[in-house]
Design a protein that fits this description.
heterodimer, A: alpha/beta, 10 strands, globular, B: mainly alpha, 11 helices, 80% helix
Chain lengths: 309, 257
């Protein structure tokens, strides 16, 4: 549960449309999961000092000395990111496009190796014991990892077997997840014939099929209609009750509707991490959207993005 | 876990219409080549009767029918292997494997075995044709076994080469062309070396002969199984599989597809 006091200088050329969307103040959702006290529950995900993508800049003095466009130079990089998730946590990873949300989720999923820092999943280090650590992870990338030629059922069975479920257990897990993600009507269909919303749901189903302790969702709300968004919210809240979830999004109201904590990322650094209810998040995110985040209390300005993590 | 990968990879290949089309065309080509060589064998009967050490039917077919197929398989194997990783990158489905509890080594071995099993079915077609001649005339099983081993070992090495190039790019066609370029070079090294030897060239091309696929595979089709040749194809296979594992680990370190 660490919020880093770290802010970078910020470019001002932000997308006007996004500004309008993000600065909207969104209300608290009535059925949001309860915020669990830190000390009572088990740590499922522990990421310490994660860094990636800033090393190259340190080796290029010209770029660090004159950051003409820091947003481009640092796009997708992450520095000194520390997150701790306990059972029951649903963490919203909030940030503008290019803030490093996808990179963070990929680092947590073990798809990318951090250049600095470490990730521990339910006591297994991703570095020293990657297979046992990854067995506890369910990961939905920003593009669902699907095979268009496969049928939904066969695909989910493959996902279950890849996550160490065998024989009957795997088939039962697939049946269960098909029901849970409302895929009954399409379970015999080829994935290529499905609508975008259904594909997203199949993607979610493969991440959930083995009932993982750590669920990592990278912008899962993309392409869903309001009804599907509501179903997604239910599934995520449900998973959050028993396990822990990281949910990346660039929409504050989407994060609020499912998450009990929100971490705000900006240019690869964690600006703040706090309970989702706080009204200061609205103000902070509206400022981010306008491209002026540096004035938040306790944050110091950056010297140009060349700082070691 | 590996068995899941093998099953998936074989199923993906067998589910592809292009693969069945390629297989059908190749099977037709096998049939045609087989019939022409059997006809050629019949045509040279009188000439062979005068020779002391005339080859038998199996020896004749191994040299004239099966040996050229090794070159054909150096084209087919990369075609079968091209989608193994390129397709995953293109479909953005690779994170499914990267985030699952399976090591890069197991993934590479699983995918490789899955492709090779399907290819071995194709290898068995021409071998089966020669074997079927045994119903009518006596055949030399030793020579046939040696030629089959040659085809299997070379196909195994060609598949590993194709798999490696597939892991380098999201464009399957580029993977095929790169594999073909390398394999063609390895085929040509032998002929360049032997022609250099004939004219007494100054360049030490002869030293490259050891890397020539043509030279390495020839013995098998004459009924000679040399340890050096087995080691050559085994090392080539292991080398490209190891390079593929290194490549997949590099992707985790931020390499691009």
């Amino acid at each position: 549960m660490v919020a880093l006091n770290y802010t970078s200088s910020v470019p001002s050329d932000r997308d006007a449309l996004r500004t309008a969307t993000l600065s909207r103040i969104c209300g608290r959702h009535p059925s949001r999961p309860r915020f669990m006290p830190e000390s009572t529950s088990e740590i499922l995900l522990d990421a310490r000092g994660l860094g990636r993508g800033f090393g190259a800049q340190r080796r290029t003095p010209a770029r660090s000395a004159a950051p003409a466009n820091p947003a481009t130079a640092q796009r997708g990089g992450i520095r000194d990111l520390t997150l701790t998730l306990r059972r029951g946590d649903v963490l919203g990873l909030l940030g503008l496009n290019g803030a490093g949300k996808s990179t963070t989720v990929r680092l947590l999923a073990g798809v990318l190796t951090p250049q600095t820092g470490s990730v521990t999943i339910k006591g297994h280090s991703l570095e020293d014991n990657p297979l046992d650590a990854r067995a506890e992870i369910g990961y939905l990338p920003d593009t669902p990892p699907l095979y268009p030629d496969m049928r939904v059922e066969a695909y989910l069975l493959l996902a279950a077997r890849l996550r160490r479920l065998r024989g009957r257990t795997a088939r039962e897990a697939v049946e269960r997840i098909i029901g849970r993600c409302s895929l009954d009507t399409v379970s015999r269909s080829r994935i290529a014939t499905l609508s975008k919303g259904f594909r997203q749901r199949v993607g979610l189903a493969q991440a959930l099929v083995h009932d993982p302790e750590v669920l990592l969702l990278d912008e899962p709300g993309n392409g869903l209609d309001p009804q599907q968004t509501e179903e997604l919210r239910h599934i995520v809240s449900d998973a959050g009750q028993k396990h822990c979830v990281v949910f990346s999004t660039h929409l504050l109201h989407e994060a609020r509707s499912v998450c009990n904590r929100i971490a705000v990322l900006h240019e690869g650094a964690l600006l703040t991490e706090r309970p989702a209810a706080g009204s200061e998040l609205d103000e902070l995110f509206a400022r981010l959207a306008r491209g002026e985040p540096g004035q938040d209390s306790g944050h110091k300005p950056d010297t140009g993005g060349a700082r070691p993590s | 876990m590996i068995s899941t990968v093998i099953r998936h990879e074989s199923a993906m290949l067998l589910r592809s219409a292009q693969i069945w089309l390629i297989a059908a065309l190749i099977a037709a080509l096998f049939g045609y080549l087989f019939l022409t060589q059997v006809q050629a064998w019949l045509n040279v009967q009188t000439a062979l009767a005068l020779e002391d050490k005339a080859p038998g039917l199996t020896g004749f077919l191994a040299a004239r029918f099966l040996a050229p197929l090794a070159m054909l398989f150096s084209i087919i194997a990369p075609l079968f292997a091209m989608r193994a990783f390129s397709n995953e990158y293109r479909l953005a489905s690779f994170p499914l494997w990267q985030s699952s509890p399976i090591s890069s080594t197991a993934l590479v071995i699983g995918k490789y075995t899955g492709i090779l099993l399907v290819l071995l079915l194709l290898v068995l077609i021409p071998v089966g044709m020669v074997f079927a001649m045994g119903l009518f005339v006596p055949i030399d099983l030793g020579t046939l076994a040696s030629a089959t081993l040659g085809l299997i070992l070379s196909t195994a090495a060609f598949t590993a080469t194709g798999l490696y190039f597939s892991s380098l790019t999201r464009h399957a066609m580029i993977a095929v062309l790169a594999s073909l370029a390398l394999l063609l070079l390895l085929w040509l090294i032998g002929s360049a070396a032997s022609s250099a030897q004939r004219v007494g060239g100054a360049l030490p091309l002869d030293a490259l002969r050891g890397f020539s696929i043509g030279e390495r595979v020839a013995g098998f089709f004459q009924g000679f199984i040399a340890t050096g040749d087995i080691v050559f194809f085994s090392v080539m296979t292991a080398l490209f599989l190891a390079l593929t594992v290194v490549r997949l680990d590099a992707l985790r370190d931020g390499g691009t597809e």
